[in-house]
Design brief:
Blueprint lengths: L1 H17 L6 H15 L8 H21 L8 H29 L6 H7 L1 H17 L5 H13 L2 E2 L4 E2 L4 E2 L6 E2 L4 E2 L4 E2 L4 E3 L15 E2 L4 E2 L4 E3 L4 E2 L4 E2 L4 E2 L8 E2 L22
Parallel strand pairs: 1-4, 2-5, 3-6, 4-7, 5-8, 6-9, 7-10, 8-11, 9-12, 10-13, 12-14
Helix pairs in contact: 2-3, 2-7, 3-4, 4-6, 6-7
Amino acid sequence: MNKLNVFISRLHERNASLLVELPAKADVSRFVNEFFDLLFPMSKPRSIDSCHLLFSGIRLQLERMLCVLKSQMTVTPSEVLDGFFDRLPDIYDLLVEDAEAIYRFDPAAKSIQEVVNAYPGFYAITVYRLSHQLLHLKVPVLPRMMSEYAHSATGIDINPAARIGKSFFIDHGTGVVIGETTDIGDNVKIYQGVTLGALSVEKSQAATKRHPTIENNVIIYAGSTVLGGKTVVGHDSVIGGNVWLTASIPPCSVVYHESEVKIRNNRGFEEPVNFII
């Protein structure tokens, strides 16, 4: 028991020296979901007075979280709030273009309403665009907490520092990873299991461009991995499924993984089938 007491004391001292105050995860998730519902309500349109009231509540939630982070910030909470909400109409316009792109290119989508309320890719993109703006305004930690909440909800991991153009489309989405220094142009489509990652994970490379550049009008199909800060996928290219790419490709390229698939009848084998596990 004495040994446990000593350990608890040591743990308390270490945590006290390391921990800084952060917003509660529950507050972050509530902020994200209420903000999404405000921008894209599932029910009938709200009155203008109701919208004003809800925006005031969202602003207050953000202000409270910024006040928790105030000691770590180089700007004031009021400067962040003014900058964020001034930029919000432009963010909303980008999100509308994202939703329209998904509806336009996915034959399964029956309406914009379905896209905004049922597509995990759109939800992840929405959280990314909000968190990216907060990061641009030099807000610490909170943007990453928002993106990690979206990651847990959708299986899509978009670092808020990534730069993504308009009309972005993530289809299905599970397992998509978009790294911190990734640059993505306009009208890009990405399918499930795609990784836009780094060749090196050394801490000394943190300030360098480690993730690829994807130019306009590129499609990257399921399971493909594109790595490296010097890797550029030229515009109007198609990356087929399960491709491993660590070098740049010119515009209008088609890159595919070639594998041999054999099909045979499962009856009447002349030789035994050997299974190796």
